[in-house]
């Protein structure tokens, strides 16, 4: 059995009562050993019942079992000591700062292309590149106001960035609800451990959105724009609007007049200054993008281009979170900030390159292959967990469209003890911290820990059967 870094114990194979417990887990582990199996099972059932009652679900498109599912919640937290979090936070701030500078650059002077660091075709042929944004100035030069950066741990415990999510990153509501649930179920743990709070995230988000309002607006009106109740993340849209105390709107609730965006209210039209939009570029404005979109606001792009409304995240930001751009992020950090990256990328083979494609084809059984535009754990091959037929199918896809894929080594992701049917067992995890960019770059300590509940699985996405854990950052 392959070894991996165990978050709780210095044992890379399984949860072992005799294994040495890592220092930052000792308090929790001592508490856990004093709990009866019946107590823990009762608490787990209470959590499931509460989550279902509150409506904390997500939709799975095309799922025959029903449109709504409960995301499994695990009561064993993922704990990170203060020193490790400080390193992570420094690296995340650095990375998101460089990514914002990159998006501004490609829509303005394009210095990174002129310097020969990124080939021009990687930008102009990118499905997320929006020529409509060329030369357009956005408030404070911020494009990715909310970034969800996926962090994994491998080897001897080194952190790596697996993915940058800069379009409409989701999951922060589960981070907040998981914490609320743990505090409800186990208040004694929070009395004993100095755990950094996360419940102020909605206030931070609102302050961040207000800080990037159009120039001259002193008391901006902020709204959350949702595609509607059938969207997989609708719970989160409604949750964040309610927590920030702002209106949740759909495209039909907004209209453009006099180069201004207005919201329909019972008291008449009200100007909207900042839109936290949770739908993709293509659907924002039927006059500019997809003419068949009934989700957007006709004329929105013209108001945006005139600088009279802020969209978070900005149109065209997706060019920076495409997997074909990911390999260049360390170079962006060096180019824009003149700094060495604090957080490393996972080594990546770009299949559009002849030599990288040849290596990938020769080693498919050992690699993870991903579509450059893929998301949610779909459109990927995990070589060691795939059949010969699946590998051969992917070989044909690669040969037909090599520039549509990247490949990476199969990392032995770190694991955290997790309650499963057989008891406590290690399951692989990742971490998605949420980074807010406005007048400053800020983040709450922690993020959403996702866990692959199937034994041996490396796919943590909720749409693929993954669950979540509370993430504790210790303050000492």
Automatic annotation (TrEMBL):
Pfam families: CP_ATPgrasp_2. Residues 77-452 form the Circularly permuted ATP-grasp type domain. PANTHER family: BLR5612 PROTEIN (PTHR34595), SLL1039 PROTEIN (PTHR34595:SF7). This is Circularly permuted type 2 ATP-grasp protein.
């Amino acid at each position: 059995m392959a070894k991996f870094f165990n978050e709780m114990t210095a044992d890379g194979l399984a949860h072992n009562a005799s294994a040495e417990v890592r220092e930052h887990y000792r308090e929790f582990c001592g508490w856990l050993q004093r709990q009866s199996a019946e107590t823990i099972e009762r608490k787990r059932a209470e959590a499931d019942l509460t989550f279902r009652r509150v409506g904390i679900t997500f939709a799975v498109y095309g799922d025959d079992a029903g449109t709504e599912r409960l995301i499994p919640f695990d009561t064993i937290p993922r704990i990170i000591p203060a020193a490790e979090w400080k390193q992570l936070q420094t690296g995340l701030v650095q990375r998101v700062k460089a990514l914002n500078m990159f998006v501004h650059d490609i829509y303005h002077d394009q210095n990174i292309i002129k310097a020969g660091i990124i080939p021009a075709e990687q930008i102009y042929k990118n499905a997320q590149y929006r020529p409509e944004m060329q030369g357009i100035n956005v408030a404070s030069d911020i494009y990715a106001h909310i970034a969800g950066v996926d962090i994994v741990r491998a080897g001897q415990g080194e952190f790596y960035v697996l993915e940058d999510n800069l379009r409409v990153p989701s999951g922060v509501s589960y981070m907040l609800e998981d914490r609320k649930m743990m505090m409800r179920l186990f208040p004694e743990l929070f009395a004993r451990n100095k755990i950094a709070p996360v419940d102020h995230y909605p206030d931070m988000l609102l302050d961040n959105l207000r800080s990037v309002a159009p120039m001259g607006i002193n008391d901006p009106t902020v709204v959350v724009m949702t595609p509607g109740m059938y969207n997989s993340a609708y719970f989160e849209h409604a949750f964040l609007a309610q927590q920030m105390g702002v209106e949740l709107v759909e495209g039909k609730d907004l209209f453009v007049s006099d180069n201004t965006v207005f919201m329909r209210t019972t008291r008449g039209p009200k100007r909207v200054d900042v839109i936290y939009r949770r739908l993709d570029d293509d659907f924002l404005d039927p006059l500019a993008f997809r003419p068949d979109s009934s989700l957007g606001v006709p004329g929105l792009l013209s108001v945006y281009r005139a600088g009279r409304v802020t969209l978070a995240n900005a149109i065209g930001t997706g060019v920076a979170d495409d997997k074909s751009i990911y390999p260049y992020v360390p170079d962006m950090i060096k180019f824009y900030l003149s700094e060495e990256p604090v957080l490393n990328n996972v080594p990546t083979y770009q299949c559009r390159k002849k030599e990288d494609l040849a290596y990938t084809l020769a080693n498919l059984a050992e690699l993870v292959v991903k579509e450059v535009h893929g998301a949610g754990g779909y459109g990927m091959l995990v070589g060691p967990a795939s059949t010969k037929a699946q590998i051969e199918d992917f070989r044909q896809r690669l040969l037909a469209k090599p520039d549509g894929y990247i490949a990476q080594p199969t990392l032995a992701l770190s694991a955290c003890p997790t309650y499963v049917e057989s008891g406590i067992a290690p399951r692989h995890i990742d971490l998605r911290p949420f980074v807010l960019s406005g007048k400053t770059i800020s983040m709450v300590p922690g993020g959403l820990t996702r866990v692959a509940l199937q034994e041996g699985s490396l796919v943590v996405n909720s749409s693929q059967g993954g669950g979540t854990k509370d993430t504790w950052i210790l303050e000492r």
